[in-house]
Amino acid sequence: MKILVCISQVPDTTSKITFTDNNTQLNTTGLQYIINPYDEIALSKALELTENGNGSVTVIHVGESPADATIRKALATGADEAVRVNAAPRDAWFVANQVAGYAKDQGFDLILAGRESIDYNGSQVTTFVGELLGIPSVNAAKKVTLEGTAAVVEREIEGGKEVLSIPLPAAIGTSEGVAEPRIPNMRGIMSARTKPLTVIDPVDVPVLTRVIRYESPAPKGAVTLVDAGETEKLVDLLHKARVI
Amino acid sequence: MSVLVYTESASGKFKKSAHEAVSYARAVAEQLGTDVTALSIGDVDASELQALGNYGASNVWSVSADRLKNFINQAYASIIAQAADQSGASVIIISNTFSGRGLAPRVAAKLGAGLADGAVDLPEVTGNVLTVKKTAFSGKAFAYTELVSPKKVIALNPNAFELRETGGDAQVEAFNPIVDDRDLTTVIKEIVHAVDKVPLPEAEIVVSAGRGLKGPENWGMIEELADVLGAATACSKPVSDAGWRPHAEHVGQTGIAISPNLYIAIGISGAIQHLAGVSASKTIVVINKDPEAPFFKVADYGIVGDAFDVVPRLTAAIRAYKGNP
After folding, report:
1. B60 lies in the same domain as B164
2. B145 → closest Cβ in A119, A136, A209
3. Given an 8 Å threshold on Cβ–Cβ distance, is A213 in contact with B110?
4. What DSSP character marks residue A20?
5. pLDDT tens digits, residue range A19-60?
6. Contacts of B115 in chain A (CB under 8 A)
7. Beta-carbon contacts below 8 Å between A and B
8. Do B21 and B120 sit in the same domain of this protein?
9. Interface predicted TM-score (ipTM)
10. Which CATH number covers residue B66?
11. Domain that includes residue B307, residue range
12. Residue whose C-alpha is closest to residue B2's, from B83, B104, B103
């Protein structure tokens, strides 16, 4: 079982998000970057599936050299080797083309990524990669098991779930619950320094989308407090606000 | 330069998000001075197809074949791309649902189109460029994304665009795409719909509870309140992490992002990660015994009080209101 895991780095979940340059750039001052939490689930699943010498895990990241710390963390968690495509991750289409460009002749059985990144919330990369490589994909898996040359995947649908079987190779986006999260131990941290991290050049991708500016949500007005004993008053306010 | 909208269905009926997508497509078509073709795949009742006219579709193309009854993203994406080509569509609208997210990138890649997903408003039109306002940083911000390619795919968030009934009529016809067996290798083994529950991402009212509830055995009163309101239930991350509630109910930055008309948060302090996923709610009610809880800062209405006392009273008050509005 040869698995490729796509890792993106995102601002820590406790970050306050602000912008600079007339709201055209993310203000990165003071931001701490972490592995996208959904990608961490993908990595944990890959490690689970290849346990006891049953295969290998490669992580791939599209980004510039400051991301090496994040990549080393993935290696410390247990990945065998890492590839960094040396380019700023312009958009999901660009990232997916880099991943597919690298993966196309590497013979991976499974390509895993998080369901979405918590920065641009695209949830596009897994599906783009599936399309570019001409293989099946599932974008929000809740459970993944292997049965011979197929993956049995439980995916989320509105108000329920669907169980499907897809032949390998396949691309799967992981949600919470797919795997127990793993954290690096001391041995992992020591060995991560010597694991291979290969830097490769990006492939050319035409520009289809461009983020031109950002906006923060409008601040809320002050809260209207209702006394705990007057729930009828709250019901009346909600009725007047036409939400019930 | 027409607009194609894919209308997602379940069990022979269109979802509310599909009607929203048609309303949105119609509004985009009006911006561009063109009309809307809606595409349905799978067995959908004839009256349902016809009714898409009422939301602004001029034409409805229906694909119904036994092997296409169940959603398979590769095959469906291929059909949508064929319909886009044949209808001459330059803009393709898809609902940003779980299935839609598995479709839109494939459709965009097939058409060489730029994709904006998580759209929350109509695009700004500047010549051939559409600028789409979309959610980013899990609700902590919006990003305005330019689609600069000749063809464009927009995935619209559920509950983000109001239904507009036009009273119009649609011409319904069969559409016969070519579907390659290689796009049908996925086998659907089981589909489970929780029939008695409102799906969380589409719910207009959501009742959510956190660690303040003290344990899973106390969720009865939450479900009862949700019941009288016809609401979906949700929870905070610590609650699903502790296994008190299923992960599928976790709303927040690393869970589901929602935008209901009314969000009632009970015993949730309002950590920044939770607020990120719910801040798009139109009205927020917070019930918490701690007056300093950060959630009150983003709430429209609040009650400082013990959930075990307030929630049953609120349920009774709503029941009385429903009985005698």
Report:
1. yes
2. A209
3. no
4. E
5. 999 999 999 999 999 999 999 999 999 999 999 899 999 999
6. 92-93, 124, 208-209
7. 269
8. yes
9. 0.94
10. 3.40.50.620
11. 200-321
12. B83
